[in-house]
Design a protein that fits this description.
The chain is mainly alpha-helical. It has a single domain, classed as Di-copper center containing domain from catechol oxidase (di-copper center containing domain from catechol oxidase), CATH 1.10.1280.10. Helices cover about 40% and strands about 5% of the residues. The chain contains 8 helices and 2 strands; from the N terminus they run E-E-H-H-H-H-H-H-H-H. The chain has a two-stranded antiparallel ribbon. A hairpin with a 5-residue loop joins strand 1 and strand 2. The radius of gyration is 20 Å and the shape is globular. InterPro entries: Di-copper_centre_dom_sf, Tyrosinase/Hemocyanin, Tyrosinase_Cu-bd. Its EC number is 1.14.18.1. It is an enzyme of class 1 (oxidoreductase).
Amino acid sequence: MLVLANDGLLALGQSYDFDQMVVLPRAATAKLTVTQSLPPRDNGSTPYREEIRDLVANKHKWDLFILALSSLMSVSQDDALSYYQIAGIHGAPFQPYNGVMAYARNVQSGYCMHNSVLFPTWHRPYLSMFETQMYTLANTIAAQFNDDERDEYQKAAADFRIPYWDWSLYAPAGQSHFPDPCSDHLTA
């Protein structure tokens, strides 16, 4: 069963026997952006995301994170895979992403699905898209280091993942609960 609601939402029944590109005309106007898993290590294991304070302790990984983020932020705002456009999926700027408007009732909050049962299925692909761009840039940057540093940076880039903040950890003595790397002014 296929029903188009008044506000343009698509409701589907149990059958998925149709060509979605025909049913969803707005998809025909947008170039599809596909994200996928990052490559595993040579032994087949998956690199894990590190807590941000642990990432900072690894000079090569932290350097690559800051350089990749700076590089991503310098990509033209018109590029669908720029920091500006990817950040816009999460919230501001409140504009269509890649030709697709946000949900009609969410025009001033972007595509963000916080406070919704859809959050896990929305946030993971969003982070994957961001992480894929950062991974690609980190590996490109690592290859540009001079010969005596390149190997270490390429090893760090092969395991590159975006960090997380474990808010439940006690802050180290003399530091605020919010990790220093998140509040310090950083330049690349």
